[in-house]
Structures are given as structure tokens and as C-alpha cells.
Amino acid sequence: MPKALITGSAGFIGYFLARRLLEDGFEVIGFDALTDYYDVTLKQRRQQMLLQHPGFRAVNERLETDGVLMDLVAQDTPDVIVHLAAQAGVRYSIDHPRSYVDANLVGTFNLLEAVRATPCSHLLLASTSSVYGANAEMPYAETHKADLPMSFYAATKKATEAMAHSYAHLYDLPITMFRFFTVYGPWGRPDMAHFKFTRAILQGEPIDIYNHGNMQRDFTYIDDLVAAIVGLVRAAPQRPATPEDIAPGDSLSPVAPYRIVNIGNSEPVALMDFIAAIETALGQGAQKNFMGMQPGDVPATWADATLIKTLTGYTPQTPVAEGIARFVAWYRDYYNV
């Protein structure tokens, strides 16, 4: 039975990935600090559901605690490690930058050190579409420059990409970085737009719409994202013998077994259309409070998903209207509204 270590296993994406790998026959070690960035009860519920499976074990610790990851990886020797745990959120990083240094930089360093000491067959680390920052060329391709982050959150994620590349080069560790594009679905984070909009509409409160609604996002449904990650687990990069061995459009490093991969729907949706889908699923309209652009935000995201399709055959299956309907059904059931 293959063994996977998932950091952030009680989080939104971590929960669904752990569930899928358990279904696929993996033994899963879930690592999570259950921090109070958002409702801890939601995290506890996800973890409790995973604990119903005999192949799942939970470790409740912090990434930045010295020695914890080193000991865990050495003792359990996982075949695959998927690093999802992080301090997330563009807006939160404006007022709480220290938490991003601790979780994203120190925490990722601790994991890289643990894998250097006890290598696994494939280390996959989560990044974000936010690293594209001020890049205006769309759709975003993995080979584009991403040197102008617009938020400290994005800066820390870009830093983890660079850190991981150095470890892949120095210690021949197969590493894949995947960049998420606005993931949504049931059991999502309460600070995400679809969650906040749904809650506000049901409570008869206005919703804040930034940049006066002139926004686009490449919304990616959770099931599609997880299918892509599972496909990438089986696609560990190999150090190329020569630069000529790298296929056109591939982000494979010329000097390391390291690759960056976008995971998105590759079909940007206007924010107002996204809100309309929520209104339709709820059967009621929203009171709209139009505002200027939020500091650190970008007006649009759009993933070039050519590489992930080449590597795994990934093709998104869930239209936004369908994904939102599933989320709203879950929300009404979970909160009994």
C-alpha cells in the first residue's frame, strides 16, 4: 500500500485530496495545525470524517515547530508528500505578514530539510496563481515571468518555489510546484468569495464587489483540482540530460528534476456572472456594494492548462453553474438554512 503525507489535510483542498487518495488505496498521514485563521469547527469536521477511514492517521502539529516534520518523515518514510499547508489569503497578508513568514517560509523550509534527510519519490508543493502578480500577458503560462508579486502572500509563495528549486537541484529531489486558480466547492474556506457571498445573500446583507465588478477569475471546482493533483502524483519530473530534452511549453528546469504546473479551469468567468450563478442557485438576488480595487488584488486570472493536460490528460468537468449549485446545496445543509 503506497503511503502519502498530506500537510494541511484538515483544510479545504487537503480534505478532498486525502479522501481521494484513501479511495485509491493509499495510506494517508494527515498533518494539520487546526489553526484559527477561520472556523476551527469546519476543520475539525473534515478531520473527523477522514478519521472514519482506517487508512488515515492525523498528526496535529505546526509546520514551523522545529524537528516535528524531520522526525515524522524519517519515521514514516512516505512515498509521496503533498504540501498544502500554508497561511493563505491575499487580504489577510496585508495586516498579518508575520504569519506568512512562519507558515509559508519557515514551514516549507522545515519540510524541504525533512525530505533532504529522508527522500521520497515525489514531493508536490502548492503555490498560487497570485505569483503571476503584475504580469498582464494572458492566459498565464508556467514559462511566463512571475517576478512582480502584488501581495506579500504571493511573495512568500514565489519564495517557496525558488527554495524548492534549489533543493531539487542540489539534492536531486523530484519536485512539482502547482499553481492553483481560485478553487471553490463544498467544505470551502469561509473567507472565499463564494462562501461570503452566499452567507451575506441569505442573511439579507450587501456583498462587497471590488473594482466595481470588473473582475475575472479562472474558477476551478474542487473535484477537478483533486483529479489534476492525483494525476501529477504519478508524473514525477526527471532531471533532463540536456536543455534540448525539454519539450516546448514545458516548465521543466534545465538543471533539476523540478517543474511548475498550472491547475485551472482555463476558462475565466466574469465576477458578475459568478455572482449571478450564486443568486440563481439560492433563488434570491444580492444587494450589491460596488467598491474600488482591493490592495494586493489583480483584476483577472486565466490559466493556460496545456501542460497539465499533456502530463495527466486533465480536462475540467464542472461548469461554474453546476459547481456553485453543489456548493449552495452543501451550505444550506451544513448550516441548516
What can you see in these coordinates?
With 337 residues, the protein is of the alpha/beta class. Helix content is 40%, strand content 15%. The chain has 11 helices and 13 strands. It has a 7-stranded parallel β-sheet, with helices on both faces. Helix 3 (68-76) runs parallel beside helix 5 (97-117). The longest helix is centred in the N-terminal third of the chain and has 21 residues, at 97-117. The radius of gyration is 19 Å and the shape is globular. The mean pLDDT is 96.
Mean pLDDT: 96
Low-confidence runs (pLDDT<50, min 5 residues)?
Answer: none
Radius of gyration: 19 Å
Spatial strand arrangement across the major sheet:
3-2-1-4-5-6-11
Output the helix-strand order: EHEHEHEHHEHEEHEEEHEEHEHH
N-end to C-end Cα span: 42 Å
Largest sheet: 7 strands, parallel
Query: What percent strand?
Result: 15-25%
List the total number of helices. Answer: 11
Shape: globular
Helix content: 25-40%
What structural class results from the helix and strand content? alpha/beta
* Strands, count: 13
